[in-house]
UniProtKB/TrEMBL annotation:
SUPFAM superfamilies: UDP-Glycosyltransferase/glycogen phosphorylase. Its EC number is 2.4.1.1. It comes from Methanosarcina barkeri MS. This is Glycogen phosphorylase. Gene3D superfamilies: Glycogen Phosphorylase B (3.40.50.2000). GO terms for molecular function: glycogen phosphorylase activity; pyridoxal phosphate binding. Pfam families: Phosphorylase. Belongs to the glycogen phosphorylase family. Keywords: Glycosyltransferase, Transferase. It comes from the Archaea.
Length: 558
């Protein structure tokens, strides 16, 4: 409890997120949303922003991915012991679910910065002895189960989270909802403020990460009424969250004075999706120190002291000798290739142009796009050798995402004699760190406009890895053709059918590999090193979570 008292001085910003990625050993994240939340917290600690974070403990993690020889994904629980990393607090609160009192306890993890700052993270846990077996399981699986399970989790996170902060003595001046999963905190704030939406809106900030209608959580009111049996509460949800179905994002929009998307493009798309709402833009960033390889950290420390807390100093990358920059990249690449060979025995080498693709395996990410024409890939490989590294998990209920993994495995077999391709099992933060620093090209092929932001390419840029991406999400802001990397396909404003866009993108991807990227990598190394410099000096210096958090402080938290 002494640790807690030290972080209770003054008013806090309460940052609510269903998932938070802190390390591979704490498997409370599924993908980009959770990793972004972790980076947000780390930057808040570095910058001494008075933040407290609230999430679920996810005792059995997201899942541990096992792949058989055909690429069939098998999910295993990833049980972990919170007591290894955090402290169980004495306070308990309860929420009503189906008219039962469900008790919630809390674990405290202090995210401490190298600069001396600290952000407390409260992990909510319903595995309490007084709860029945079903209720004890609510905080077991991140994004597990069905709609009923999800809504129970959102009740615990939103309503239970507000009550827990109050019980622990935190004084909160703003509640920041990272996506709509935590929007039920608005219901609790309305209850505490006499159902006065004006007061609640003054307290709330909402960041949306979803550019498509289908991505926003919606629940049938039959289910809502079954779990939240208070008629007055359900009437409030209908009033602010939609008449036909309870839309968590709409509820958050109606109860927040500040709303933002996570890139400029995404804020425009969100404004079209929710007409009449003012949706600002704060472009995402990544935590520079966390996602920079040890080899580049050492280099930056020597030539750009203070860079970790002032990433804008990376703009001075030209002051570092090219030979040392190339050596740092080479060492990071060697570490990745050694890890790949140790895991797979595929026999990749250090000299070959290495392309990386790692993210959630879901249809719109189009993980197999680069493999669409094996004969063309063989032709490209004959011009200059390439090797490809894939990684990523498909949600247990996403059949199309699982098929993508199987398709990659089929292509590995088709191309086995000519091109080395691997799929790394059980993608986590450790694998991500090695991949974003160790490949030469970071590939991103989403279907436009479904990529709200994406942040893996920002991590790659911190390590001088060059981006090759469809113009969507953050890359629209970071891209200068041939200077910071390359675009795949048409400009964002070009109106093409999905089929026309796909054909243009595939042609552009193969042509750029064949005519531009391979000749430069193998024959004009000085130009390639200039691209490495530009990735760091023109992308990493800006697309970091320190800049992002300063924007939140001046635009959202005041």
């Amino acid at each position: 409890m002494d640790d807690l008292q030290g972080v209770l001085k003054g008013q806090k910003i309460a940052y609510f997120s269903m998932e938070i990625g802190l390390s591979s050993e704490i498997p409370t994240y599924a993908g980009g949303l959770g990793i972004l939340a972790g980076d947000t917290i780390r930057s808040a600690a570095d910058l001494n922003i008075p933040l407290v974070a609230v999430t679920l403990v996810s005792n059995k993690g997201y899942f541990r991915q096992i792949l058989d020889s055909s690429g069939n994904q098998i999910e295993h629980t990833e049980e972990w012991n919170p007591a290894r990393f955090m402290t169980l607090l004495a306070e308990e609160v309860s929420v009503k679910i189906q008219n039962r009192d469900v008790k919630i306890r809390a674990w405290l993890h202090n995210c401490k910065s190298l600069t001396g700052g600290c952000v407390p993270i409260i992990f909510l846990d319903t595995d309490v002895e007084e709860n029945n077996w079903e209720d004890r399981r609510i905080t077991d699986f991140l994004y597990g189960g069905d709609q009923r399970y999800r809504l129970k989790q959102e009740i615990v996170l939103g309503i239970g989270g507000v009550r827990m902060l109050d019980a622990l003595g935190f004084k909160i001046r703003k509640y920041h909802m990272n996506e709509g999963h935590s929007s039920l905190l608005g219901l609790e704030l309305l209850r505490c403020n006499g159902i006065d939406p004006v007061k609640v809106k003054e307290l709330c900030i909402f960041t949306t990460h979803t550019p498509v209608e289908a991505g926003h959580d919606k629940f049938d009111y039959g289910l809502v009424e079954d779990l939240i049996q208070d008629k007055n509460c359900v009437d409030v949800l209908r009033r602010f969250g939609g008449v036909d179905r309870f839309n968590t994002s709409l509820f958050a929009l109606n109860l927040s004075n500040y709303v933002n998307g996570v890139t400029k493009r995404h804020s425009l798309i969100s404004s079209e999706l929710f007409p009449g709402y003012k949706i600002q833009a704060i472009t995402n960033g990544v935590h520079s120190y966390t996602w920079t390889s040890p080899y580049f950290r050492k280099l930056y420390d020597r030539y750009l002291p203070g860079w970790a807390n002032e990433p804008e100093l990376l703009v001075r990358i030209d002051g570092i000798p090219d030979t040392e920059i190339w050596e740092a990249h080479w060492n990071a690449k060697k570490a990745l290739i050694d890890e790949v060979n140790k895991r797979t025995g595929v026999g990749m080498d250090y000299e070959t142009l290495t392309i990386g693709f790692a993210r959630r395996m879901t249809a719109y990410k189009r993980a197999t796009m680069a493999l669409s024409d094996p004969e063309m890939l063989k032709k490209i490989n004959r011009r200059g050798k390439i090797q490809l590294i894939f990684a990523g998990k498909a949600h247990p209920n996403d059949g199309a995402g699982k098929q993508l993994i199987r398709d990659i495995f089929k292509n590995i077999e088709i191309l086995r004699e000519e091109i080395k391709i691997v799929f790394l099992e059980n993608y986590d933060m450790d694998i991500a760190g090695k991949m974003v620093s160790g490949v030469d090209i970071w590939l991103n092929t989403p279907t436009r406009p479904y990529e709200a932001s994406g942040t893996s390419g920002m991590k790659a840029a911190h390590n001088g890895v060059v981006n090759l991406s469809v113009l969507d999400g953050w890359w629209i802001e970071g891209w200068i053709e041939g200077v910071t990397g390359w675009a795949i396909g048409p400009q964002p404003e070009e109106k093409l059918s999905e089929e026309e866009a796909k054909a243009a993108e595939l042609s552009d991807l193969y042509n750029k590999l064949y005519y531009i990227i391979i000749p430069m990598y193998y024959d004009r190394k000085d130009e390639w090193v200039k691209l490495i410099n530009n990735s760091i000096g023109m992308i990493a210096y800006y697309f970091n979570s320190h800049r992002m958090m300063r924007r939140y402080v001046t635009h959202a938290y005041l």
